[in-house]
From TrEMBL:
Domain of life: Bacteria
Cited SUPFAM superfamilies: NagB/RpiA/CoA transferase-like (SSF100950)
Name assigned to this protein: Succinyl-CoA--3-ketoacid-CoA transferase
Listed SMART domains: CoA_trans
Keywords annotated in UniProt: Transferase
One example GO MF annotation: CoA-transferase activity
NCBIfam families, sorted: pcaJ_scoB_fam
Species of the source: Fuscovulum blasticum DSM 2131
């Protein structure tokens, strides 16, 4: 597939996603590449990270040997606390999410459609941990940014006209960040915002099944 050897790596994708953050935001980071966003919060930007298992104000990942097994994020990774960290039960956590208190979620995905449909929780026939908070997040937060590889390991597009996997939410994604570039979901299809390093527009279009406008 054109463009596979070019573009952004996981850390560069996370750094690009961190540019979506605005000062004062409350933000939920999903499992996978999105957890790396915490390492790239721009200087001068103060954001509060929320974990749906009951933590507001997540710190960075701990150094080896300093892990606390009681401090984990929703993806079961060990994390650290901050002086201002607050803890609460799941009911309070989901009241924040469902009540529209979280400004943005940065999530991973298996598939995204040109209308902003998101599939990120299961592949039929494969053992998965379950939906988790993803369905509530995409329905309750102000903005949804997806960070994922543009194609599968077999070179098939994951940015589709219509998702083939069970949906997490319909018409919920605002922006898609992949190893090939950044795309916005707009009426009628997708719009290219920026191309990744070394990737041409033709290569991005060739790797995308969804409709790209312009």
């Amino acid at each position: 597939m054109a463009g596979e050897s070019k573009g952004w790596d996981r850390n560069q994708m996370a750094a690009r996603a961190a540019q979506e953050l605005r000062d004062g935001m409350y933000v939920n980071l999903g499992i996978g590449i999105p957890t790396l966003v915490a390492n790239y919060i721009p200087e001068g930007i103060s954001v509060t990270l929320q974990s749906e298992n009951g933590m507001l104000g997540m710190g960075p990942f701990p150094f080896e040997g300093e892990e606390d097994p009681d401090l984990i994020n929703a993806g079961k990774q060990t994390i650290t606390e901050l002086p201002q960290t607050a803890y609460f039960d799941s009911a309070t956590s989901f009241a924040m999410i469902r009540g529209g208190k979280i400004a943005m979620a940065i999530l991973g995905a298996m598939e995204v459609s040109e209308t902003g449909d998101l599939a990120n929780w299961m592949i039929p026939g494969k053992l998965v941990k379950g939906m988790g908070g993803a369905m509530d997040l995409v329905a309750g937060v102000g903005r949804v940014v997806v960070v994922m590889d543009h194609t599968s390991k077999h070179g098939e597009s994951k940015v589709l006209k219509a998702c083939t996997l069970p949906l997490t939410g319909k018409a919920v994604v605002n922006r898609i960040i992949t190893n090939l570039g950044v795309l916005d979901v707009v009426p009628g299809g997708l719009k290219i915002v920026v191309l990744a390093d070394g990737v041409t527009e033709a290569e991005l279009r060739a790797a995308t099944e969804a409709t790209i406008l312009g």
